[in-house]
Amino acid sequence: MSRRSGILEFAVLGLLRESPMHGYELRKRLNTSLGVFRAFSYGTLYPCLKTLVANGWLIEEPSAEPVDALAAPLTGRRAKIVYRLTAEGKERFEELLSQTGPDSYEDETFAARFAFFGQTSRDVRMRVLEGRRSRLEERLEKMRASFARTRERLDDYTLELQRHGMESVEREVRWLNELIESERAGRDQKRSPSSDSAQQDTSSGATGDQTRRGDGTPPETPEDNNT
Asked: Which of 24-28, 37-41, 112-116, 127-131 has the highest mean pLDDT?
C-alpha cells in the first residue's frame, strides 16, 4: 500500500468513526475538514472504500434518503450507499492512531494525523509533535546550508523563493514549539477529582457555617445548650 492510499484509509476510518456517511459526504469532509485531500477524486475514494469493506472494516448500507429519480440513471444507482464503521474497523483505526513512526512526521501524513489529535492520547500526540519538529529542524538546517552555498549564483527571485521556504519552515517550528509546551503543561486536561472534591468540601463547610434558622437567628452552639 502506498503512503498516500494509507493516509486516505486512515482519514476515512477516522471520519466514519464520528458517524456513518455516504461517498459524497466523505469526499466533502476530506476536502473541507482535513484540507490535504483535495487531489483525491471519486475514482480514488471509492476503490479505497471497497478495499475497506473487503477487509471487514466497513459495511455498506442503503441510505434512508429518498432516491433522486433524475440522478439515478446518471449514477447507475437506485439508492445512495452509506458506509458504517465495524468493530474491526474501530480497532484498525485505533491501531493506526497509536503509530508514531517516521511516516507520521511527513507533510501530508502529519496533517492527517493532526486532524485527529482530539481522538489521540496525549503521549502519542507528544511523540508525533516532537518527531515532526525534529524532522523540520533537519530540513531547515539543510535549507540554510544550501542557501549559503548558492546565494551568490542565484538571481533575486530565486533567492526570495528560497528565503520564503525557510521562513515557512521556521514558522512551523515555532508553532510546534508552542504546541509541545502546551502539551507539557497539560493543556485540555480535566481538573483532578481530588481538587474538585476539596473545593466542594470547602464550599459545603462555608455554607454550613453560614446557615441560619428559619426565623433568621443563627444556629445554636454548645454554649447555648448549656445555658
From this structure: 127-131
Residue-wise pLDDT for 94-138, tens only, equals 999 999 999 899 888 898 899 999 999 999 999 999 999 999 999
pTM of the model: 0.72
Q: What is the pLDDT of residue 219?
A: 53
Q: Is residue 207 part of a domain?
A: no
* Cα distances (Å, whole numbers) of residue 178 to 68, 132, 227: 49, 13, 66
200 part of a folded domain: no
Same domain, 94 and 24: yes
Considering the domain boundaries, does residue 92 fall inside one? Answer: yes
Domain count, the chain: 2
Would you give the DSSP letter of residue 101?
S
Query: What is the crossing angle of helices 3-18 and 107-115, to 10°?
Result: 10
Cell of 11: 482519514
Q: What is the CATH classification number for the domain harbouring 40?
A: 1.10.10.10
